[in-house]
Write a structure and sequence with these properties.
The chain has nine helices and ten strands. With 265 residues, it is α/β, with parallel strands linked by helices.
């Protein structure tokens, strides 16, 4: 576990400098505005090719987080169709920089909708997307109509996409704050998720400012939230996957979080 790669979500302008400041072997970035349909933007000075080559030379793995507004599950055509198009653009951009994966939230349907429609919309989205990099579906914290808050819903998404062409490129990103706030017991969540998906490809390790099953997505630095410290470390240990800390602060705060976590691993 001493060699388990741990990094952070950082500013996208120069992610390699951000990685160096944290002595991290991996970082996660947005490509462009996470709240916009405008499409991805490579802000690294040399462009996509330079970022890919420089990251390889530096030994830094890159992960990309897709925009929050993507919701391929919804029954609303004015959201679902642009979401699919935006997802493809970010898959393409993530591939262009040599990213190890693209993280995307599970989305949701409206209260009056049949959840089955949302599950099938996930299947259709996978089949409609040319997955040039692994697509890592992330569990989310809130919403009774969310596709990936509850384990049962995650299972239904996986059942739906299992038959889709491209399903072999689908992975899972486990967020500890989201699991805790979403009402999933961290004592068993790693085994529970693996029983459903067969895999955990990335861990978003975050403490939670809010209580268990609160539905609130508010991250905290390690030891400053409501998750038992040993339980938080146990999830990381049991998952055995690369770790991205999406905790508040900059390089100094992240370095402290890394040290806190490594001490308990």
């Amino acid at each position: 576990m001493s060699v388990l790669p741990i990094g952070a979500h950082v500013d996208q302008t120069d992610p390699l400098a951000e990685a160096a400041a944290r002595e991290a072997s991996l970082v996660q970035i947005f490509l462009g505005d996470p709240q916009s349909y405008k499409g991805p933007e490579i802000r690294y000075a040399g462009g996509a090719d330079a970022l890919r080559d420089d990251a390889t030379a530096a030994g830094v793995d890159l992960y990309v987080h897709a925009p929050y507004i993507i919701n391929v599950a919804t029954t609303n055509n004015r959201i679902r169709i642009p979401s699919r198009k935006l997802l493809q653009k970010h898959v393409d951009a993530a591939a262009s920089i040599g990213a190890k994966g693209l993280v995307v939230h599970g989305g949701h349907v409206n209260k009056a909708d049949d959840p089955e429609t949302g599950f099938d919309n996930w299947r259709k989205a996978i089949e409609a997307t040319d997955l040039k990099v692994p697509l890592l579906i992330e569990n989310t914290a809130g919403g009774d109509n969310a596709m990936t808050r509850y384990l049962e819903r995650i299972g239904r998404v996986w059942d739906a996409i299992a038959s889709a062409e491209g399903a072999d490129q689908i992975g899972f990103c486990l967020d500890t704050c989201h699991a805790h706030a979403g009402g999933n017991a961290l004592e068993t969540v790693v085994d529970d998720v693996r029983a459903i998906t067969g895999r955990i490809d990335l861990v978003h390790c975050n403490d939670s400012r809010d209580a268990f099953d609160s539905g609130a997505d508010r991250h905290a630095n390690f030891g400053a939230g409501t998750i038992d410290p040993e339980l938080l470390a146990a999830v990381v240990r049991d998952a055995g996957a690369p770790v991205v800390c999406e905790t508040p602060g900059g390089a100094e705060e992240h370095a402290a979080d890394f040290a806190w976590l490594r001490e308990r691993l």
